[in-house]
Amino acid sequence: MEPKLLMTEAQMEESLSRVADEIIADGTEGVALVGILTRGVPIAQWLATIIEKKQKKAVATGSLDINLYRDDLSEVGAQPVVRPTELSFPVTGTGVILVDDVLYTGRTIRAAMDALIDYGRPRFIKLMAMVDRGWREFPIQADYVGKKIKTDANENVKVMLQSIDGVNKIVVKRQA
Amino acid sequence: MKLSLRHLLSVRDLTKRDVELILETSRSFKGISERDIKKVPTLRGRTVVNAFFEDSTRTRLSFEIAEKRLSADTVNFSISGSSMAKKGESFIDTIRNIEAMKPDIFVIRHSQAGAAAQAAKLIHGRVVNAGDGQHEHPTQALLDLFTIREQKGRLKGLKVGIVGDIAHSRVARSDIVLFQKMGMEVSVAGPATFMPFGIEDWNVKVFTDVRAMLPQLDVVMALRIQRERMGEQFFPNEREYARFFGINQAALHEAKESLVIMHPGPVNRGVELSTEVIDGPRSVILDQVTNGVAVRMAILYLLLGDTKEM
Fold first, then answer.
1. B4 in a domain, yes or no?
2. B147 with B245, same domain?
3. CB contact under 8 A, A82 and B36
4. String of b and e for A50-78 (b: at least 16 CB within 10 Å)?
5. Contact A68 B1 (CB under 8 A)
6. Chain A residue closest to B33 (CA)?
7. pTM for the whole structure
8. CATH of the domain spanning A7-72+82-153
9. Nearest-neighbour CA in chain A from B32: distance (Å)
10. In terms of CA atoms, which chain B residue is nearest residue A111?
11. B5 within some domain
């Protein structure tokens, strides 16, 4: 079945611009945007660029690999590829906004919080998700959301990004 | 992603893709040892037995630290004080009995070639060869390779020289095979008594004078003189060895500025390498030790993928 277009590049930019306003309103002093590998990273950078343009001041970014903290390691087949985490600022005392592409069960975010805390004691952890598709299995909610939608369990939300997929758009596919 | 093998017994079994995967994963794991909290929960609930039927400081510590940083439960077995030493229990029975306690991974060092491979046939878990006699030491070769890539940024086309007792060295055997697999050019230097029978077939250049070999090299690996493995007929005199095959500042006179100097340890100071070379700017001997932990973490992690199929 043909995937359904959820957001174009312009709509993504518009959503991120609104999220940027919300983040700036909450304060960006001592705050860093940390993308969860892989797709959270370019979103965090995109968001940081917009924030910098608006407030004329850069905001720190980083990337976080959560694979060593997954709760399904004994269930998946081959081991997931582990990539280096890059946090160029001391985590202790920093307000961290985790950035991910799709918020679904919440298990990734649980792993991300555990991973982050092993690097230090952040002042706070907030969550930004490009798409919130519902179906949570953990008591986790996003502080900033690009777009919130209702989905079926057999739908797959795919956030496509220039640096990975060669295009910026979001589609919803129905699994066969 | 997963390795093409169940056990790490020999570098010969690794595909180039396996090697790339281990190197990439090691790079990610290296960061864990640089944090305040040097531990990830990945191997929680897994049991690793370090079965050392032969002495070791570095390798055993390195494996144990790697296992602990992955949150595995570790158990150590050593031959002294065991039922093998005191009551004559055989190697095979010892392995079978440890196996009955259901560990997930065996790390095995033994003075006999093929010991780890033999154990692998008896057990359900995974086996890592931590050195078997004069045969192989695959994790050492992988950490050497990782260190070279970290220093040089590439592998293919590099010229590597190995100096010393090639015939009795499991490190040399694993290094040569692995380095050649990754497209490096290997040469060796040492006294004629240290050259293995059939070296002509190893596809390496053989030098009888280390000073003639050094100027072409990007990397030189000095091997430890293994006094415990040889009699007088192989090795008459340390002073004489140091004079012809030891690397000191004078020997490095015509070497490249960028030459990297390695040694698998422990170093006999003043024999294989002079003190100023060991502690000098080209030496990466302690980087090798640091990297050993990351590489062993990566291997343990990757071997435990797909355990459901077991």
1. no
2. yes
3. no
4. bbeeeeeeebbbbbbbbbbbbeebeeeee
5. no
6. A119
7. 0.92
8. 3.40.50.2020
9. 9
10. B41
11. no
Residue A125, Cβ neighbours under 10 Å: how many? 18
Averaged pLDDT for residues A7-16: 98
pLDDT digits (tens, 9 = 90+) for A94-105: 999 999 999 999
Could you give the angle at which helices B138-152 and B16-30 cross, rounded to 10 degrees?
70
Q: Residue A78: which of B24, B40, B306 has the nearest Cβ?
A: B306
- A82, A92, A107: best mutation site toward chain B, by most B Cβ within 10 Å? A82
**How far is it, in rounded angstroms, from Cα A172 to Cα A87?**
32
Question: Do B37 and A79 make contact, defined as CB atoms within 8 angstroms?
Answer: no
pLDDT for the residue A106: 97
Judgement on whether residues B153 and B130 belong to the same structural domain of the protein: no
Contact B40 A69 (CB under 8 A): yes
Per-10-residue mean pLDDT of chain B, 310 residues long, equals: 92 97 96 93 95 92 97 92 81 94 96 96 95 97 98 98 95 98 97 92 94 97 83 71 92 96 95 96 97 98 66
Q: Name which of A73, A83, A120 is nearest B28 (Cβ-Cβ).
A: A83
Structure tokens at B228: 């415990």
Domain span at residue B104 reads 11-136+290-309
The set of catalytic residues of B is 58-59, 87, 109, 137
Tell me the nearest-neighbour CA distance from B31 into chain A, angstroms.
7
Say how many domains are in chain B: 2
- Residue A156's pLDDT is 95
Residue B118's domain is classified under what CATH number? 3.40.50.1370
Q: Compute the CA torsion angle A13, A84, B152, B142 (nearest 10 deg).
A: -150
Position A80 confidence tier, pLDDT thresholds 50, 70, 90: confident
* All residues at 6 or more sequence positions from B30 whose CB lies less than 8 Å from its CB, including other chains: A84, B290, B291, B294
